[in-house]
Specification:
The structure holds 2 protein chains of 2 kinds.
Chain A: H1 3-15, H2 20-33, E1 55-62, E2 65-72, H3 75-88, H4 93-97, H5 103-107, H6 109-112, H7 115-141
Antiparallel strand pairs in A: 1-2
Chain B: H1 5-9, E1 18-19, E2 22-23, E3 25-26, H2 37-50, H3 60-79, E4 88-91, H4 94-104, E5 114-118, H5 127-136, E6 139-143, H6 153-159, E7 164-170, H7 182-190, E8 196-199, H8 211-214, E9 218-222, E10 233-237, H9 239-244, E11 255-258, E12 263-265, H10 279-295, H11 297-316, E13 321-324, E14 333-338, H12 343-352, E15 355-356, E16 358-360, H13 365-370, E17 376-380, H14 387-404
Parallel strand pairs in B: 3-15, 5-6, 5-7, 7-8, 8-9
Antiparallel strand pairs in B: 1-2, 4-10, 9-10, 11-12, 13-14, 14-17, 16-17
Helix pairs in contact in B: 2-10, 3-10, 11-14, 12-14
Classes of the chains: A mainly alpha, B alpha/beta.
Chain lengths: 142, 405
């Protein structure tokens, strides 16, 4: 599936819930299901700044595609980062850099989050894009 | 007589707000309090009928504004039982008041001197002193907090010495709710002639503040934590000290005579009030304190103690909850953690259910970290909160915990 198709699938999942408590319950389940990041990557180097809770994000390249793993000490945050990973993992740097993040608005996530959490979300996206750019530069140099 | 909470809730327009479709339950009074109609009306009345610059201009409006403004100072001085009206300096709030004293204190600190604070200070009563010590090569010494949230008094006594040039500590902890033994510690400090600054940010709306009884040299508080407007507050200082301290901001009413060679500063309280003061908000602060005075601060404290007791005993029945700060003398502040749950997750779900709480380190990072925590959830009550709100909070908390665990 393309990033766009995966994003659309996520948007539709969220449309199933009328109530924001249910949407949060879903985010919490996603957070709990997020595969645990290898503990060697839970270091300050992998910490994303700008979040009230701690978020670690790691990226590695597998056959031209970036695979993200992440963790957070707050489970809702973990749910949010797991959404991003599900949509953006296993794509090339180019695809990630061209990704349209308006699906977040369709979910209503950004407007619903507190300003600190929205900042945190913006920081996560920025970090994902930075990784993509770094891998792109690396592959251009090879 | 029962505390008229249902009646006075009508005074606070914001309390009828809906949050995510639920009635607002505002339990973040430690951060700021809501404003009664009387205070809001006072601001409007000032701008509609009195607005003018104070202490200047011989015209009608200026006189009217000046009389109101100085009348507010007079009332506030009485409210905190200051000996003299000019001992009340209007500032932008607690942080500004503490910074004023710390900046003006530069000439009283020498290399190797000590400034004494406690481990339960929020950043506003820590960083100004830390910076002062850094600039003057003085030592910032910290009285530790015991596990129950009280100050280690035997150690505090030992830390007092002639090397200490000022002792600054909070009346009430914003994280733990502890009411510190101010009178006792001030008396101990005075044995070495150490002046004492009390941070009253968390006290002014909850307990009686009598600066002569406390006998502190300085007392700082903000209007907005006591149902008044944001952006204004008070520095109380004993006049002998305020006369001794140099001003640290210049211009406007704080000047008596000025030439290009020199300036003679105005007398108290104007010496410390540079620039045009925040007249409207000062009048709002007066109205807020009059509101508390009418209800009676002791009645308020008694009522809030009831909320505290009910909330504490209900919380302790929930498995996995740990209350941080179990001092015997507490105000209506409860910090807690739930085993295995991040405070931020709980705060988010409580917000979904209309409940405003604070999560995180409460601008007191060193304290929270010294307790081995990465944050707490804090509920802090005000005079308009009710027992049924506490019950709704407890039910909502249980629901959130079930979702998260």
């Amino acid at each position: 599936m393309t990033i766009k198709e995966k994003a659309q699938a996520v948007v539709e999942e969220f449309w199933m819930f009328d109530d924001w408590m249910d949407k949060y319950a879903y985010l919490i389940e996603l957070g709990k299901d997020l595969p645990v990041i290898d503990s060697q990557f839970k270091t300050n180097n992998h910490l994303i700044s700008g979040c009230q809770s701690r978020v670690w994000l790691h990226a590695e390249e597998q056959e031209g595609q970036i695979v993200f793993t992440a963790d957070s000490d707050a489970v809702i945050t973990k749910g949010i980062v797991s959404l991003l990973i599900r949509i953006l993992s296993n794509h090339t740097p180019k695809e990630i850099l061209e990704a349209d993040f308006s699906f977040l608005e369709s979910i209503g996530l950004q407007e619903h989050l507190s300003p600190t959490r929205a900042n945190g979300l913006a920081s996560m996206i920025k970090q994902i894009q930075l990784y993509a750019r770094a891998f792109q530069l690396k592959s251009n140099q090879l | 007589m029962a505390f008229p909470v249902n009646q006075l809730r009508n005074d606070f327009p914001i309390l009828s707000t809906q949050v995510h479709g639920k009635p607002l339950v505002y339990f973040d009074n430690g951060a700021t309090t809501q404003k009664p109609r009387q205070v809001i009306d006072r601001l409007v009345q000032y701008y509609e009928t009195e607005n003018s610059n104070v202490h200047r201009g011989a015209h009608h409006l200026s006189n009217l504004a000046t009389v109101s403004f100085e009348g507010a100072r007079n009332f506030i001085a009485q409210y905190i039982n200051a000996q003299r009206t000019e001992e009340v300096i209007f500032t932008r709030g607690t942080t500004d008041s503490i910074n004023l004293v710390a900046s003006s204190f530069h000439s009283f600190i020498q290399k190797g001197d000590e400034v004494l604070i406690t481990a339960m200070e929020h950043h506003s009563n820590l960083v100004p002193w830390q910076q002062l010590c850094k600039n003057k090569e003085a030592h910032l010494c910290v009285i530790q907090v015991l596990e129950d949230g009280m100050l280690d008094m035997p150690v505090a006594r030992k830390m007092l010495s002639p090397k200490v040039k000022i002792l600054a500590f909070t009346h009430i902890s914003n994280v733990l709710g502890t009411i510190n033994p101010v009178k006792e510690l001030v008396a101990e400090a005075h044995r070495y002639n150490i002046p004492v600054l009390i941070d009253g940010a968390q006290a002014i709306a909850h307990v009686q503040v009598d600066v002569q009884e406390l006998d502190c040299e300085f007392y700082a508080f903000s209007a907005h934590k006591a149902y008044g407007p944001m952006g204004t507050g008070v520095l109380y200082g004993k006049s002998e000290w305020l006369n001794k301290l140099p001003p640290c901001q210049f211009g406007g009413e704080m000047i008596d005579q000025v030439s290009f060679d020199k300036t003679v500063f105005n007398k108290l309280p104007y010496k410390f009030e540079a620039g045009t003061p925040n007249v409207a908000d000062v009048l709002g602060m007066e109205t807020a304190l009059r509101y508390l005075d009418t209800l009676g601060i002791k009645n308020i404290q008694q009522y809030e103690d009831g909320l505290l007791e009910h909330a504490t005993s209900s919380l302790l029945k929930i498995p996995g909850i740990k209350i941080i700060g179990r001092a015997k003398q507490k105000t209506a502040v409860i910090s807690f953690i739930v085993e295995g749950i991040h405070p931020y997750d709980l705060g988010t779900l409580l917000d979904q259910m209309g409940i405003a709480v604070r999560t995180g380190n409460h601008c007191a990072q060193p304290l929270v970290e010294s307790l081995g925590l990465n944050g707490t959830i804090r509920v802090s009550f005000g005079l308009y909160n009710t027992l049924s709100e506490v019950d709704y909070f407890i039910d909502s908390l249980k629901r959130a915990i079930n979702m998260l665990l």
